[in-house]
């Protein structure tokens, strides 16, 4: 509190420089706090392991995990496994966007198209996407193709739903303004509806990206003999748990990077959108 | 299209269109299955038959009900823990300390954790409930924490001025203030719990709908797989319907405040 007050006084005296300095200081404190929190959490993990609350036979130490991580990344198979998972993820998500964005737009713009698909969509929607993993295995085998199709099937929905919601939810006043400027229908779609729907679309993409990662790792854990999921399940069943945890760490890291990437795009592309507008539909 | 005066409204027509499209799709599935375009694609009637056999046979008690029970137990535990942790961390201004760690843990797909958790602990029902609870925890926690951080400072100061102690503020003020957001998170957690349920039964399982799916896949029993998926879809729909009722009940004071009750 007291530091806030003093920076406030500084800011009044010299607004430009101090606000930047304050921002740097705030960033540094939050980084230090975050790191301290991480250290405490890792320490707690080690303690629980020492006390055998987490079974020591099946849970590797932090040091062992880090060693496995380093060995796996430099010369081991973790790097190629990560590459495989990322490839399946990106290809599936790319296809899902190519199909989902125009479809969501069509459903958002046309009430008839929306109505024609509503019953089918309402029926399919509550099915958890991972339930299709075994089906995809039977139909498409154990390779990359199966993973990509699976990701497409699971990740296309959040993109469609959020795009539809975003397009339907555009403020009518914006559309009316466009009409009073004698914009054509197409211009209204492109310059008003697309722009106004972008925050919702990005929310959909973030959800889709998380689902895509879940589905690739699921397929790999269950059957596909490549990728991070395969490393996790193989290492876990053969007892080399440190390797399994190393692969888990990378999977979590991928998730963090994806979320950060979409958050960055969000602040660059749609700086006006508020957190309240960021809701999954 | 010419619609005579006093005849059906466009809304009703659209509804009919949706139902017709659904029926057409089912019919196409039936025809494609009967025509045998793929050895793996059974006709729709076989899938429905398989689902019916599961619901009316011994699998109801052996697989379906235990699955649903675990999903519900995990969902409730995860939501409660998510609310508790969200209020404590959000109101306690611990956000900056834990954010990077939790951001990482939250990004771990549940399917990556499930195998090692099941191996570390006994692969029984309790562990599976724990996996479902973990997955359901995040959406509730994130929303609650966010809301707890942004509770109006003036409300808290007013409560302090009236001599309310910390626990009163925590449970009677911050708790209820975060409830609408927590419930919004719980809605997401409902579908996440079903996903985690299936995932938890993919590994080292001997029963449950996820296990059934795996088992049918190994035997190339596609009708059985589609049957299990149909049942999952119905369970998902019932759960989200039940959730709507629950939401209305638990937030009735809030909806009343906002003038949202019908």
Task: Walk me through the structure.
The complex is a heterodimer of chains A (281) and B (262). Chain A is mainly alpha-helical and 281 residues long. Chain A has two domains: 2-58, no CATH class; 64-277, MetI-like (MetI-like fold, Orthogonal Bundle). Helices cover 81% and strands 0% of the residues of chain A. Chain A is built from eleven helices and no strands. In chain A, helix 7 (144-168) runs antiparallel to helix 9 (185-222) and helix 9 runs parallel beside helix 10. By secondary structure, chain B is mostly helical. Chain B has two domains: 1-41; 44-257, MetI-like fold, CATH 1.10.3720. Chain B has helices at 10-35, 44-56, 59-91, 95-107, 110-120, 125-149, 153-161, 166-200, 209-218, 222-250, 252-257. In chain B, helix 3 (59-91) runs parallel beside helix 6 (125-149) and helix 9 runs antiparallel to helix 10. The longest helix of chain B is centred in the last third of the chain and has 35 residues, at 166-200. Chain B starts with 9 loop residues before the first helix and ends in a 5-residue tail after the last helix. Chains A and B meet through helix 2, helix 5, helix 6, helix 9 and helix 10 of A and helix 1, helix 4, helix 5, helix 8 and helix 9 of B.
């Amino acid at each position: 509190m007291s530091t806030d007050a003093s920076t406030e006084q500084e800011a009044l005296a010299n607004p430009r420089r101090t606000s930047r300095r304050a921002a740097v200081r705030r960033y540094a404190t939050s980084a230090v706090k975050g790191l301290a929190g991480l250290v405490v959490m890792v320490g707690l993990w080690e303690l629980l392991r020492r006390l055998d609350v987490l079974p020591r036979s099946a849970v590797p130490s932090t040091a062992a995990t880090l060693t496995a991580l380093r060995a796996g990344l430099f010369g081991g198979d973790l790097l190629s496994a990560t590459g495989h998972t990322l490839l399946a993820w990106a290809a599936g998500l790319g296809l899902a966007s190519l199909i989902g964005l125009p479809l969501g737009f069509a459903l958002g713009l046309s009430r008839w198209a929306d109505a024609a698909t509503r019953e089918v969509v309402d029926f399919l929607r509550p099915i958890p996407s991972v339930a299709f993993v075994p089906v995809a295995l039977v139909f498409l085998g154990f390779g990359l193709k199966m993973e990509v199709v699976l990701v497409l099937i699971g990740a296309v929905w959040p993109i469609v739903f959020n795009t539809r919601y975003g397009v339907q939810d555009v403020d009518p006043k914006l559309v009316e303004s466009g009409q009073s400027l004698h914009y054509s229908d197409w211009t209204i779609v492109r310059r008003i509806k697309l722009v106004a729907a972008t925050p919702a679309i990005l929310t959909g993409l973030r959800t889709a990206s998380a689902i895509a990662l879940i589905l690739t790792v699921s397929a790999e854990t269950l059957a596909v003999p490549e990728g991070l999921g395969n490393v996790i399940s193989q290492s876990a069943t053969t007892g080399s748990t440190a390797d399994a945890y190393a692969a888990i760490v990378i999977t979590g890291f991928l998730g963090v990077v994806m979320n950060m990437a979409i958050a960055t795009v969000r602040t660059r592309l749609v700086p006006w959108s508020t957190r309240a507008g960021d809701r999954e539909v | 299209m010419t619609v005579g005066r006093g005849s059906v409204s466009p809304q009703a027509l659209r509804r009919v269109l949706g139902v017709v499209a659904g029926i057409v799709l089912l019919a196409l599935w039936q025809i494609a299955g009967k025509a045998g375009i793929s050895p793996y694609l059974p006709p729709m009637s076989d899938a429905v038959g398989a689902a019916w056999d599961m619901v009316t046979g011994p699998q109801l008690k052996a697989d379906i009900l235990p699955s649903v029970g675990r999903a519900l137990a995990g969902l409730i535990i995860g939501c409660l823990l998510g609310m508790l942790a969200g209020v404590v961390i959000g109101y306690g201004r611990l956000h900056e300390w834990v954010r990077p760690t939790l951001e990482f843990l939250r990004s771990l797909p549940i399917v990556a954790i499930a195998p090692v958790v099941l191996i570390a602990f006994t692969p029984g029902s309790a562990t599976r409930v724990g996996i479902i609870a973990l997955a359901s925890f995040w959406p509730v926690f994130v929303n609650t924490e966010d809301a707890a951080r942004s509770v109006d400072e003036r409300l808290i100061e007013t409560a302090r001025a009236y001599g309310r102690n910390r626990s009163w503020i925590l449970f009677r003020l911050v708790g209820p203030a975060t409830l609408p957001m927590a419930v919004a998170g719980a809605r997401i957690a409902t579908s996440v719990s079903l996903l985690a349920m299936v995932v938890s039964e993919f590994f080292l399982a001997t029963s449950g709908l996820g296990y059934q799916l795996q088992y049918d896949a190994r035997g190339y029993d596609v009708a059985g797989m589609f049957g299990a998926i149909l049942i999952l879809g119905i369970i998902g729909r019932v759960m989200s319907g039940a959730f709507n009722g629950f939401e209305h009940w638990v937030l009735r004071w809030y909806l009343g405040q906002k003038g949202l009750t019908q």
